[in-house]
Amino acid sequence: MFSTPAQLDLLRELEPTVEANLNRHLSIAKNWNPHDYVPWDEGRNFAAMGGEDWDPDQSRLSEVAKAAMITNLLTEDNLPSYHREIAASFSRDGAWGTWVNRWTAEENRHGIVMRDYLTVTRAVDPVQLEQFRLEHMTNGLVSPMEGSFLHSVAYVTFQELATRLSHRNTGKACEDDVAERMLDRVAADENLHMVFYRNLAGAALDVAPDPAMEALTEVVTNFQMPGLTMPGFRRNAVLLAKHGIYDLRQHLDEVLLPVLRMWKVFERNDFTGAGERARDQLGDYLETLQQSATRFEESRERTLAREAARA
User: Fold this and answer.
1) What does UniProt give as the signal peptide span (predicted)?
2) Mean pLDDT per segment of 10 residues, for the chain of length 311 residues?
């Protein structure tokens, strides 16, 4: 499962940190029931049960909100792939295994509640949604975590925080109190998961500064969201960035930089040559990303202004 004895040694050394953070997580995580967040009184039968099939006029969501909900749900749907990847990268033994299974169980609630909401409220085409789910899960995951355990734990730290942000912004875009309450609940889970991984990655930086810094830089400079293989992902990603659900500025200012500050990446003095080079590369990349985010914002403002003028 692991390519080098050094990775196994690192996993053993970090297991007390995993156990401590698992206990912390269990002490503060709130158990909740997906059925408590769904307006069941809005539900009715589809044609197969003598009712009426979906029609676009039945949806109360904007096109942006529908695209965001579908993107977020399909991302959650691919949980079996994520479980496989994280179990292979971490371990199925001891505190590691307990965490992997607990994380999977908590994540599974997200797809359940979001699908129930979308189906009951007839917010999106359920037939198309099912077709997309089958296609996305059949495609599987183009693993963003290939490499060492250090790559995996760095990636999931950023990915959990990015997902939290996307869920919160999607809830607001829905302009529906029920959807916003539901997605706030999902986002709260994602935040706790992010804290677990952030603490673990921080401990890895202390134990193995140079390889952890190299892995961190590789993850940040090649970051992709895990929904890359879903139908229509690139089109939806552009739409969501255009309307502020998740864009380059948010990725930089609300995901990357807060985590890097928590790890004190640019203040540490425990790197040697390899770690220093990786940190310099990361710094250069962040400067480039800053420029790209500014250009995107300027372009978006021009585009929205033109659309407003035409309207």
Assistant:
1) none
2) 68 94 97 98 96 96 97 94 88 91 97 98 97 92 71 95 97 97 98 98 96 96 88 92 95 98 96 96 98 94 87 78
Q: Which tokens is 111 given?
A: 């797809």
CATH of the domain at 228: 1.10.620.20
Q: Residues annotated as binding site for Fe cation?
A: 76, 107, 110, 160, 190, 193
Q: Are 6 and 145 in contact (CB under 8 A)?
A: no
pTM: 0.93
Are the CB atoms for 236 and 67 separated by under 8 Å? yes
Pick out the residues of the known binding site: 76, 107, 110, 160, 190, 193
As for how many domains the chain has, the answer is 1
Range of the domain at 60: 5-310
- What's the number of CA atoms in the CB half-sphere (13 Å) around residue 96? 17
| CA–CA distance, 156 with 160 (Å, rounded to integer) | 6
